[in-house]
Amino acid sequence: MTKRVLLAAPRGYCAGVDRAVVTVEKALALYGAPVYVRKQIVHNVHVVASLEAKGAIFVEETDEVPEGKTVVFSAHGVSPLVHEQAAARNLKTIDATCPLVTKVHHEVRRFATEDSEILLIGHHGHEEVEGTAGEAPDRVRIVDGLDGARTIQPTPGKNLVWLSQTTLSVDETMEAVAILKERFPDIQAPPSDDICYATQNRQEAIKEIAPQADLVIVVGSRNSSNSVRLVEVALEYGAKASHLVDYAEEIQDDWFTGVETIGVTSGASVPEILVKDVLATLHEHGFKDVQEITAAEESLLFALPPELRKDMKAAGQA
User: Fold this and answer.
1) CA 40, 41, 44, 49 torsion: positive or negative?
2) Is 33 exposed, middle or buried (CB count within 10 Å of its CB: 0-12, 13-18, 19+)?
3) Helix H segments across the chain?
4) In what order do the strands lie in the sheet with 261-266?
5) Integer Cα distance of 166 and 291 in angstroms
6) d(CA 160, CA 154)
7) Tell me: the pLDDT tens digits for 139-151?
8) Does residue 77 contact residue 105 with C-beta atoms inside 8 Å?
9) DSSP 3-state of 19
10) What 8-state DSSP symbol labels residue 238?
11) Beta strands 215-219 and 261-266: pairing type?
C-alpha cells in the first residue's frame, strides 16, 4: 500500500491575516505591552495564545479597555458604533480590518445611500457579518444559508442588492444567490465578487484533492468560518472523511484505518508551523510521500494600517 499525502497550495495565512497579526506584533514593539485587541485578531487559537504570550490582551468589547489605551480592531471588521464607543473612551485605535472586508463595508454604505435594501449572505453572529451589517443596520437583512435565501421576506417595493461575507463556501453562496435571483429577478449583484481570493483559492485546491483522498485533514479552529468550509468542501467533492484539527496531537489513530491517500490543507488564519507538525505526525504513521497540489499562486500583500505606519515612521521604525 502506497501511503501518500496531497498537500494543498495555497493554504494557511492570507494577506489580510498576515497584516493583522503583524499589526499586533508591531504595536507591541512600538507602544509596549499591553496592547488591547477587540475580539480574536484572527480566528485561530494558536495565534491568539502566541500574541497573549507577547503581551496582547484580548477583550470582547471596547468598554473593557482602560481609558486612553491602545486597542486593535480585528481582521473581521467593526461597525461604526464600535468606532464611536472607542472614541468616547479616548482610546487610540488601530484598525486591522482586512481590506477585502473593508471593501464590503464600502459597498454597504454606497447601496444604503441609494435607498436599496441589502441582503447580506452570511452567518448570524459572525463578527464580520455584525460589523458589515452595522454600517447600515436599518438597511441590511442577513440571509443565513440556503434556508435563509428561501425564506427571507424583504421590504416590499425596495430595490434589492446582495452582498456576502468574505469567508463563505463559494458554491453555497452561488446557490443562495441563484435562489434569491429566482425569487427576486431584479436583485442587483455587487460590483465585484465579495468572497475573498484566499477563501476561493483554498477551496479550489481542496476540490482538486478531495476526489483522490481517503481522508482530508484541515488545520484550523472551530470558530474559523473558512476552515470549517474547507472540511465541508472536502466532503462535498469526494473525500471519504474529513476532520478539523487545531494541533497535530488531535489526530486520532483510528482515522488511518484503510487510508492510503491523505489530503492536508489549512485555513487562512493558520501559521505554517502547525501544518508542518501535522505532516510530521503523518510521516510517523508511514505517510512519507508528500506531493503538493497547487491550485493558484498568491502574491498579494497589504500595507499595515496607516495609523500604525505613521507612528512607526515617527519612531524611526518604518
Assistant:
1) negative
2) exposed
3) 15-31, 45-53, 80-88, 99-113, 127-133, 145-151, 170-183, 197-209, 225-236, 272-284, 306-314
4) 242-245, 215-219, 261-266, 4-9, 289-294
5) 29
6) 8
7) 999 999 999 999 9
8) yes
9) helix
10) T
11) parallel
DSSP character string of 150-163: HH--PPTT-EEEEE
Q: What is the pLDDT of residues 212-271, one digit of tens each?
A: 999 999 999 999 999 999 999 999 999 999 999 999 999 999 999 999 999 999 999 999
Distance separating alpha carbons of residues 223 and 240, to the nearest angstrom? 23
Q: Cβ-count burial of 184 within 10 angstroms (0-12 exposed, 13-18 middle, 19+ buried)?
A: middle
Q: Which of 170, 15, 172, 221 lies closest to 100 in space, CA to CA? A: 15
Using an 8 Å Cβ cutoff, are 144 and 120 in contact? Answer: no
Identity at 221, one-letter amino acid code: S
Which of these, 112, 295, 69, lies nearest to 202 by C-alpha position? 295
Q: Which residues belong to the active site?
A: 128
Residue at 131: amino acid letter: G
Three cell numbers written together for 186: 431584479
Check: pTM over 0.90? Answer yes or no: yes
